[in-house]
Structures are given as C-alpha cells and as structure tokens.
Amino acid sequence: MNAGEGDAVEIGRSRRPIEDERLVQGRGRCVSDLRPNRLAFLAFVRSPHAHARIGAIDPSRAAAAPGVLAVLTAADLPARPRPPSTEHLATVPPWLAGDVARNVGEPIVAVVAETEAAAVDATEFVDITYEPRPAVTDPERAMVDGAPLVHPELGTNVAFRLTRGTGDVDAAFAGADAVVTRRVSIPRLAGVPMEPLGILADWNAADHFLTAWCTTQAPWRVHAVLAETLGLGPDQVRVVAPDVGGGFGVRGPVYGEYVIAGWASRFVGRPVRYVATRREDFLVTVAARETTAEVALAATRAGEFLGLRVRGATNLGAFAGSVGPSHRIVSLLTGAYAIPAADVEIAGVYTNTMSTGAYRGAGRPEAALLIETAVEAMARELGIDPIELRRRNLVQPAAFPYRNALGLTYDTGDYPAALDRALDLVGYSGLLDERDASRTSGAPELLGIGVACYVEPTGGGWESGRVRIEPDGKITAISGSVAQGQDHATTFGQIVADRLGARFEDVTLRQGDTADALPGVGTFGSRSTVLGGTSLSLVADEVYAKGRRIAAHLLEAAPEDLVARDGRFTVVGVADGNRFVSWGDVAAAARSGALPPEISTDLDAKTRFDSGTEAMASGTCVAVVSIDPAIGTIRLRRLALVHDAGTAINPRLVEAQVHGGLAQGAGEALGEWLRFDDDGQLLTGSLMDYWLPHADDLPSFEHASAASPTYLNQLGVKGVGEAGTVAAPPAILAAALDALRPLGVNHLGLPLTPPRIWSAIQAAALSNL
Ligand code: MCN
C-alpha cells in the first residue's frame, strides 16, 4: 500500500506554496527578463481604423531609419492556414493584414530593429494609405440586414447559431402559472494579466532550430503553429512558457505576434523579442463575455421551475476559428437547477472589434448570470423568498449522476448543503436583521444581500504526466499542464509524494517546456488538477509498483507486505527500525544490473489521462453590498463562497483560487467594461480608463469547502480555478437589487457603476409617481 491509497500525508495538507517566495520577491524569469546576445526588437504598425481597405504600403522610409534590420508586410509571410472548421467559422486573422483591416489594432507591418525604441520610432515612418469603411461594433446591430459586413464573402455577420434543448418548452410555458422575462447584457471584459503579451524567438541557423519563450498557457499549441508556419519539423522547434505573469484564459490562443517573431528571427538571423505595451495588450489580447440575451423562465405558483428559453448573441469580434465560450453558455444555462425543459440559442456575431475568446470562466459566468437573473426575477414575481425558491429547485443529491435539459452530465454534489453552509458562513439571519434595520432606521446607506448558486464543469479533454526516479532516488515529475500562478509544483508535488510514499521535498515538477518531449495540452478551464494531477497520480502508481517490487527483493519480503512512507519502504508490522530501503536504494539497485531479469528496472513511466466526462464543481456565493441611494455608489461589504472541489489537494491553494476568482468576479460586477465608440475606437484601452478593482474596493473574502469527491478520477478531485468569477457577479447583482428593493428598482445591468445605479433609482422614482 502506498501512502496515496488510504493513508495520505500530503493530499489534504495546506502546504505553503513553494513557488511563491521566488515570484513575490521578483526573482521570476519572464519573457522580458531574457536578454540573449544580439537581441533585436519587434514593433508593429497597427490599424488605426476599425474597418478600412488598405491601399499602398510604403516601408522604404522605415527600412532606412536608424537601427532598422527588417520591415515585414503580409507579402513577406506565408498565408495563414484556415482551421478545418465549417461554414462561417474559418476566419482566423492573417499574420499581418494585407488588403483589409477589420479592427483597430490589427497588425499590418512588423519592424525589427536594434533597440526597442528604434523599432517603435520606425513604425512612424511606414506610409500606408487607408480607405476607411463603415464599421459595426455591436453584435445586435451587426445582425440587422444592411449592417456593414466584416467578411463580405460570407454574406452575413452571423458566424453560427448554437442551439440546445430537450423537453416540451412550449407546453411548459403554456401551462405555467408564472413566466418572467429579462434582457441581460454582460459587458465586454479584458483579462488584464499583470505581464503583457510577449515572446522571444531565437532562430539558430547552424542547427536549423527555433527556440521560443512566450507568455502562453499552452506551449504545445504554439509549438504546432510555429512548426507548421515556418515549415519546420516538430523536432526543430522548442517552446517554453517561462514564468508567465498571469494567463486567465486570454493567454490560451496562439497570437500572430508569436509567429511573426519566429519568422522575423529567422529573417534577421538574431533573437527577436516582442513585449506588448499595456495599451497594445488591451488591443491585441482576446476580450471576453459581451453577450446579450433574453431569458425567460416558467414556473408553477409553488415555484417549481418548468421551462427555460434563452435567445442571445455574443460578440466574436473580427475573427473566430471556433464557437469559443458559446458552447459552454448553451450547455450550462439551467445552472444548478432541475429544469425539465429548455430551448436555448446563442448566435456568434462578427463585429469590427478585436476578437473575443476564453477568459476565466469562459461561458460559465455568462450562463450563471442569465439563469440567476431569471431566478431572482421569478422570486419577485411569485413573492417567494429567493433562497427558498432556489432550495425548491436545486438538483438534489439523490439525482446524481444528473443530466440537464441541455445534455450535460453532473457527476456528484450536494447543492442544498452548500447553500446552507454558505448561509451559516455569513450568519444569514443576523444579516437579514441588519439589512432590515438599514431600511427603517433612516441610515444613509441601504444594505442588500444576494445569493447565487452555480456549477463549474472542470477537467475537459486529456493531459499527460510522467514520473521518473532519478539515480539518487529523487523524483522528477513532468506535466503537460503549465502554471501561471496556480502553484502546480506544490500541488502536483503533494500528489506524487503521496502516491510514491516519497518525501515532498524530493519531488521536482517540470512543466511548460516542449523539450521535455511529453506532448501536453496546457492549463485553462480549471483542468489541471483533474487531468494533470490524475495523470501524475496514475503514473506514480505504476512507478510505485515497480519500485516496491525492487524493494521487496532487497528486503526479502513479499511486495504486498511493504509500505512506503517518507521515502522509505518498510515491512508492515515489523518493528525493526533498521529494516528499510529508501527510494535511493531502489534506484541504485535498478541501475546495478544485479536484479533478477523478471524484475523491471524501468522506474520511468508516462501516460495520458482523459476523464471522458468533466467533473462538475459547484457551490453557493453570498454577497452583501451597501448602496448610497443619494449618489448611487455601491460598496461590497462581504463576499463568501462555499465551493465543492471534490477532494481538496491543498485546501490553502483552493482558497487562494477562490480569492483570485472572487476578485475578478467582483471586478466584472462593479466596474470592468471594455467599451468602443461607434467607429470602433477602444475607449477604455489603458489602466486609467479600464476600471479594475483595487484592494480597498474588496472585502476580506470568506470561504468554506463542501466536498463531494467525484468518481471520475482516482483522486476524487474537481477544479476550482474559475469558481469565484462564475459565482460573484450574479450574487453581487442580486445583492444590489435587494438593497434597492424598497425604492422599487427591479432590474439592473452590469457593471454596477454609480451612474447606472443612480439612473435606475431615478427611473424607478419617476415610474412610481
Ligand atoms: N486545487 C487543489 N485541489 C483541487 C483543485 C484545485 O488543491 N481539488 C488547487 C491546486 O493548487 C491547483 C489550483 O487549485 O494548482 C487550480 O486548480 P484547477 O482548478 O485545476 O485549475 P488549473 O490549475 O487548471 O488553473 C486554471 C485556472 C483558470 S481556468 C484560470 S483562468 C486561472 C486560474 O486557474 N488563471 C489564473 N487561476 C489563476 N491563478 C493565477 N495566479 N493566475 C492565473 O492566470
């Protein structure tokens, strides 16, 4: 028996993360810390127009500018291959725009120079003539006949209409006692990782080999695209994700800037680095959310949900190679509730804005906001307490595995228990008294309490893992996952140590480097613990079994009688403290050549794990806000989350993830908003204009666990990375509506900026006259 099977020492332990000290002290190595000899720099001329025909491009003045090594246009690069996608979904951006620019910021010319300043200066000398064309930035307007077409050859701006549903929805609505309908607009967001987009590409002409270090969550994706575009074999490219200052989903795509840097490095025969400025990062990095939908919910008088109908449109920006987060939205719209019939549709629409994609939650927050808004509205309509209404409709523990009306399977959970736990955590009845007092005492601020229940599918696809016992008995674990701050070295080290019965200190994790020759997928979608963790656990078990066989031979015992703990194999029930062999002894024996041939000496194993079905994490969030009705300001007083991550490998890190997610969710609710004017110019393209929450905008978060281990993997783990971003916006919105209830405000949109709140209060006052 290894320690991982029933006698866990590390799993469940709140270890301090081993990577944080280095990162917090600024000793990380990010792309911009890398300065090889003869480093050259890349800068881009980007479209100033949201939509324009590009006329003549004259790079001659730029090419002659001091320090300039090369000026590249679309004509110098190979065409970008279209993904094998269907219908209107094969519109990947060209590496550099050739004849048409489709959004502000689209790269048109790349300049390589001796210094960063020389490269940026030279971009000013590129002469381009543009014929501006009408642009469209709003997806609903883009769907109207006669709207400017982003890709005229498609004849429409609608890239897809994604539908899901089962059950007789018409009958459900016809037979309902109550129907509520709400229009919900989810603002466009930016991911804003601390480190802007960056790449350093280094072509070695002698070896015909390209090495690229980049800010990616998926080095193997970048590897594939670089190899294909540069016409290189897989063994001629190495991609490394060094320390990456935040990914949040928006570092998942393969950005054209990566490819151009690789191309430029080969062209000038020098290492070439590109690091976006913050303003460029706002223009280039995929944006997210921006979905508007009408949601209708039908229920009986007693509050039993009967049916759900949703029609919505999401802004794809100028290009889309897949349906992106929309596939999540359409499968999650029934949320944590048992709704027997549903009929939903989300249209993906092209506009002249930068492309959108996955950002922490990626479809889960959109779905949660839509269903929770409808649930709140229904509670008001029926006059039923919103918590009681939720309780009556939550998927019950006995129903698992549960298949929702949109075709998604939920594995395990106890949603009512999580709800109760969350209410306990905040001392709900006391809070109600405080809220009621704020309504009657003439206090300057109104208090509001909001609750949201959510589900978070985690761990889709496959991931790889490899475990190797080194000659000295130390352990190397290699994962296809790659952390950008999630502390995988700690968590995965804990898993491997337990499964091998080894010391945590003896395990080293390697990840993020394709030179490790372990093809992997990457880190996003709260997948790494479920898939990366489980694959390491499985291979550690395999290595353990081989190691134990060797140890048994050395100890002259039966393998089944051995146990490994703290790096040593001992015979169960034998008190002799000297009768043990360490992993070092096992490794030495394996190399000695002295073992009988029937004993395997290969202490190195790798595997891929695919759980088939995603593990459904879930939970409940409670928010408390206060609003000054005189000026519309809102203050987030409390934010509490009870999350079910199944088995928590490291409860401290689960909580850390919850905190990060809640902060980003609070940002979405309270102020974040990426906005364009009608001409497609970005209005909030700097940190002076794009509001992000500061520490003093946020309360001290509260968190508790509700563990329902999954049967989908041997560790029982579910993910947690996105929980807070899914849960916080609807809870905060519900709290704001609760605060304003005495003033007759029935509907509010995100973000909850003071002018919007104030306007809603004024509108309610006018309609109550
Ligand atoms: N964990 C655990 N036990 C579990 C589940 C998770 O101990 N049962 C802990 C582990 O420390 C694990 C971490 O929580 O390392 C996150 O686990 P998981 O939910 O599997 O998520 P991933 O590791 O796949 O990380 C992705 C997730 C996502 S989708 C976004 S977006 C996000 C997030 O992580 N981006 C982040 N958290 C982030 N945190 C930082 N600092 N930076 C980002 O870019």
Q: Which key features would you list for this structure?
A:
alpha+beta; 769 residues; binds pterin cytosine dinucleotide; 7-stranded mixed β-sheet
List the helices and strands and how they pair.
Elements: H1 20-24, E1 40-46, E2 52-58, H2 60-63, E3 68-72, E4 100-101, E5 107-113, H3 116-123, E6 127-132, H4 139-142, E7 158-166, H5 169-174, E8 178-190, E9 198-204, E10 209-214, H6 219-229, E11 237-240, H7 256-268, E12 272-275, H8 278-284, E13 287-299, E14 305-317, H9 326-332, E15 341-350, H10 364-382, H11 386-393, E16 402-403, E17 409-410, H12 415-426, H13 428-440, E18 446-458, E19 462-469, E20 475-479, H14 488-500, E21 507-511, H15 528-555, E22 562-565, E23 568-571, E24 580-582, H16 583-592, E25 604-610, E26 615-628, E27 633-644, H17 651-670, E28 702-705, H18 723-740, H19 754-767
Parallel strand pairs: 1-12, 10-11, 14-15, 20-21, 27-28
Antiparallel strand pairs: 1-5, 2-4, 2-6, 3-5, 7-15, 8-13, 9-10, 9-12, 13-14, 16-17, 18-26, 19-20, 19-25, 22-23, 23-24, 26-27
Helix pairs in contact: 6-7, 9-10, 10-18, 14-15, 15-16, 17-18
Bound molecules: pterin cytosine dinucleotide.
Pterin cytosine dinucleotide (MCN) binds at residues 246-249, 360, 458, 484-488, 491, 523-530, 645-650, 653-654, 657, 660, 717-722.
Calculate the mean pLDDT score and round it. 95
Query: How many angstroms separate the termini?
Result: 75 Å
Radius of gyration: 28 Å
Estimated structural class: alpha+beta
How much β-strand is present in the residues?
Answer: 25-35%
What binds here, in terms of ligands, is: pterin cytosine dinucleotide
- What is the number of helical segments per DSSP (H or I, 4+ residues)? 19
Estimate percent helicity. 25-40%
Shape designation? globular
Major sheet, described briefly? Answer: 7 strands, mixed
Strand arrangement across the biggest beta sheet: 3-5-1-12-9-10-11
Number of strands: 28
Which spans of ≥5 residues are poorly predicted at pLDDT below 50? Answer: none
